[in-house]
Amino acid sequence: MSTDTTPTSGLAGSDFASDAHSAAGLREAGRDYLIRLRGGDMGALPATLGLLTLVIGFSLASDTFLTELNIANLITQAGAICVLAMGLVFVLLLGDIDLSAGFTGATGAAVMALMIRDQGLGWPVAVLAGVATGAVIGLVIGLLVAKLGIPSFVVSLAFFLGLQGALLRMIGEGGSVRVDDDFIRGISIDNMSVVAGWSLAGGVVALFALASLLKHRRQVRQNLQHLPLSVVLVKIAGLAVVVLGMTAVLNANRSKNPNFPIEGIPWVLPLVGFLLVFWTYVLTRTTFGRHLYAVGGNKEAARRAGINVDRIRVQAFMIGSSMAAISGIIAASNAGKVSASSGGSNTLLYAVGAAVIGGTSLFGGRGKARDAVIGGLVIATIANGLGLLDQPSYINFVVTGSVLLLAAAVDAVSRRRRSAAGVG
Amino acid sequence: MTGTPLLELRNVNKIFGAVHVLHDVNFAVHAGQVTALVGDNGAGKSTLVKTVAGIYAADSGEQYFEGQPVHITSPKAASALGIEVVYQDLALCDNLDIVENMFLGRELKKGIALDESTMEQRARETLASLSVRTVKSVRQGVASLSGGQRQTVAIAKAVLWNSKVVLLDEPTAALGVAQTRQVLDLVRRLADQGLGVVLISHNMNDVFEVADRITALYLGRVAADVATKDVTHGQIVELITAGRSGSLGLAPSAAPA
Ligand SMILES: Nc1ncnc2c1ncn2[C@@H]1O[C@H](COP(=O)(O)OP(=O)(O)O)[C@@H](O)[C@H]1O
Ligand SMILES: [Mg+2]
């Protein structure tokens, strides 16, 4: 399986030698990976290592950290952060920032909650209205940034303040709106049945394996650049271990009360998983995704290639704000309410931190939807672990701030390395 | 000159506010030939290229493509005719790979998804047809390429679309000796394949090496349009700096310097 080479054929006069055979096996692929790392193309490695370190550290320091109950908690806590961060990736890809995303989320959630409570509307309409609110906010921010040329930092800072006002106006000083719709609450507090969980996990692994293998076969047949089969298999195995392992943990009974078993995957997990797959597809397989990276990498080149740069920028802000609204709804589902201070405090910094820790560059042009999930898990693990250790909350702020700074430093340093090594 | 030019400009004027940048410019590009466009800084070379590319609209004058009168009003209209420009500051995205850059803005699709296979194959075929030997993989990020390789990708991008006229604005300005060599070879090959190539360059050695004809601009006017074999380095340098050289060039009244 490690001699996965393809002969060069039908390409007289060219020597794409390394193109035709790619990395021949695991060892060579590993070497290529090391070269990429040294060149500053770190990808998800720092975040994954960081996450492992945190998990090991906290499980040594606290007996409860690695319990099934706490892991399920951690995942529910991470949901809203991951979704907010995933939306921010689109804005960060352009080299822009949306400081108002936290309050956009709370505003969307408030619209949803009020429509259910005051208008008596069903959750589908209410959720749609909440997300549409986010999209409209993103549209306005995007137009101000792209058409008027106001820096996104300033526009979104203005919205950061303005939306807090809107939230106070809707909810009232110090007040809150309860969210008790069964479906909305269920996103965070209900679990999939054990059977459904296993079927979903098995299906995800099978689909991923099938898609990877088919893609590999097509690439080999058509003489395209491809990974060695061994690397493809390792990736499939890696995904299977994580997905099935997680499912096993979450499908175990985690209740402290023997009379009321709690088991199954919290619904928020497949929701985040679906958003991850969907946005990954959009970013990597569609023209819109390609153009988004192009605009983030070199606006002028994108413009000369005939790409409507302004439209891409507006769309990125709209996606960011719509995802913020979804994130706000998840947070409301978790808290059971939307209050005038929802979306404030460290909400936004957690999400920006998650994206950057995951490997999305603050300089634009680099980032993946998956960064938000890995980074979101890191942030949620820090918050969760420090909470278990009964640390005063100032410690949490200081540690999270430091981690954000560290991630930004890694981003800046790898950018310098990339330009030194000439790897974009 | 033999035959109808592929691209011809007649009496083209371009005025920016108070600055008359192009003065009754006549300019022709022939298939299978490299036409060098030379002139001092500010002579109007880039403006001429951008007018042909549809980025600027000429204020007066006519344009003909394959003998037919045309109005090139946008970059899209220019590429629809088969006119492509390789800009002075390369229009490549560092965070994308070679294939992605070559198809940028004109991606091939299968349904809603990008057709990566076809794009990769066509990119490779195009590079192969240009006998590009220095690029290891078409899935390499362009940031990892040398200046000459980047220039090569920019040129390959321009010829990917069955273009007929390729205009290169100072493609060797930032390159070392070996890389200049690569690019000049490529420029020559494009012409040998039947394209009309316009090369803007300040380097007389480059010009004399690959160009079949030389058009010299002086303060926005065409000082001379000559076959390379009929002139010397010295004459071209004089045309560039003074607008005239012996019997060649602008009448003294039109050449104030
Ligand atoms: N967009 C513009 N607006 C006003 N003046 C311009 C513009 N573009 C070029 N010019 C002027 O036109 C002249 C020719 O410029 P250019 O075509 O760039 O020269 P070259 O490429 O030969 O060095 C210069 O004097 C320049 O200042
Ligand atoms: Mg110029």
What do these coordinates show?
The complex is a heterodimer of chains A (424) and B (257). Chain A contains 17 helices and two strands. By secondary structure, chain A is mainly α. Chain A has one domain (15-190, 266-420): ABC transporter involved in vitamin B12 uptake, BtuC (Orthogonal Bundle). Chain A is globular, with a radius of gyration of 23 Å. The two termini of chain A are 32 Å apart. Mean pLDDT of chain A is 88; it is low at 1-18. Chain B is an alpha/beta fold and 257 residues long. Chain B has a single domain (7-89, 147-249), classed as P-loop containing nucleotide triphosphate hydrolases (Rossmann fold), CATH 3.40.50.300. In chain B, 31% of the residues lie in helices and 27% in strands. Chain B contains eight helices and 14 strands. Chain B has helices spanning 45-52, 75-81, 98-102, 116-129, 147-159, 177-192, 204-210, 233-242, and strands spanning 7-16, 19-29, 34-38, 60-65, 68-70, 83-86, 109-110, 113-114, 165-169, 196-200, 213-218, 221-227, 244-245, 248-249. In chain B, the strands form four sheets. In chain B, strands 6-9-10-3-11-12 form a six-stranded mixed beta sheet, with helices on both faces. In chain B, helix 5 runs parallel beside helix 6. Chain B is globular, with a radius of gyration of 19 Å. The model of chain B has no long low-confidence stretch (mean pLDDT 88). The chains are: A mainly alpha (424), B alpha/beta (257). The interface between A and B is large, with 41 and 42 residues. Bound molecules: adenosine-5'-diphosphate (ADP) and magnesium ion.
